[in-house]
Design brief:
The chain is mainly alpha-helical. It is 84% helix and 0% strand. It is built from four helices and no strands.
Length: 102
């Protein structure tokens, strides 16, 4: 949870909102730790076993990383907005497609 907090608060929240004060940076990091802990708890409640939980954890970022790597290596289209969009789509849609039953 600390790694998630550091990555999200340092790479997303601080640059997007232009946070300058140390107090606000620490507060944002703490809120991300709290949120990620809550999400981890929810995922653990609905997991059927350790194998499924490991598969879920590994699927969060990997869906977008493959797309970013392939397009980044072999194309000039996209850019940083396309990369962030692909990672966000992979982060959100992969777990949703796994747990939402139709």
């Amino acid at each position: 949870m600390l790694a998630i907090s550091a990555l999200i608060s340092h790479n997303l929240i601080i640059p997007l909102f232009g946070v300058k004060s140390e107090r606000t940076r620490v507060l944002s990091a703490r809120l991300v730790v709290l949120t990620s802990g809550f999400l981890a708890y929810i995922i653990a409640l609905y997991g059927r076993g350790i194998c499924e939980l490991v598969l879920t954890a590994s699927s969060f970022g990997t869906a977008g990383i493959l797309v970013i790597t392939m397009i980044g290596l072999y194309s000039r289209i996209g850019g940083s907005v396309a990369a962030v969009s692909a990672l966000t789509a992979g982060l959100v849609l992969t777990p949703l497609s796994r747990y939402i039953k139709t």
